[in-house]
User: Which sequence fits this backbone?
């Protein structure tokens, strides 16, 4: 803020300048924005943030004719992990899986916790063949990973469903629905596998 300081005769004698430090306000606003877009437990995108990214990526893919695919996956027998080892162990497993998968994707990809033990990975500008190979890499990384919780070693596997934007799959809802259907097909086929 800035303004004049007038003398008794009304003439301007001084100019005042008020400076406010907004660093704390900006930091608070950034934290609030992050809370709206990030999953509190894993630190990756939350469902709301992923759905916004998905809408933007669908528009971009259609506009430029570029590929867009999605991998949806969840942890096999996760309820058993929670029941056997406790919810803190379940939380630890979710965090470890998020970290492991996040290390294996590109900056332009979006990894999100979609709900519970279910995750989505949005993959723009990559062929469906490469997405299938990536999904298989995710599956192998998790199944070969040794999860150490306190003094226990826990084996974890994931099931994955892959969908891609094409002539039959043209909307965000369809892409999600087909990835979800493929995920459940992977579970019904015996788990620890990728279905397209």
Assistant:
């Amino acid at each position: 803020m800035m303004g004049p300081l007038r003398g008794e005769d009304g003439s301007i004698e001084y100019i005042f300048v008020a400076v406010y430090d907004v660093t704390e306000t900006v930091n608070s606003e950034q934290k609030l924005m992050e809370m709206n877009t990030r999953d509190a437990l894993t630190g990756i995108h939350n469902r709301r943030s992923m759905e916004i990214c998905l809408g933007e990526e669908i528009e971009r893919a259609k506009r430029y004719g570029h590929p867009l695919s999605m991998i949806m996956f969840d942890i096999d027998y996760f309820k058993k992990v929670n029941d056997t080892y406790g919810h803190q162990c379940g939380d630890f497993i979710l965090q470890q899986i998020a970290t492991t998968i996040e290390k294996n994707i590109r900056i332009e990809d979006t990894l999100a916790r979609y709900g519970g033990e279910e995750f989505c990975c949005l993959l723009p500008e990559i062929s469906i063949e490469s997405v299938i190979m990536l999904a298989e890499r995710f599956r192998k990384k998790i199944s070969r990973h040794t999860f150490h919780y306190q003094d226990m070693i826990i084996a974890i596997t994931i099931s994955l469903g892959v969908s891609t934007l094409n002539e039959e799959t043209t909307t965000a809802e369809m892409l999600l629905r087909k990835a979800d259907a493929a995920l459940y097909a992977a579970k019904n086929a015996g788990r620890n596998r990728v279905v397209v």
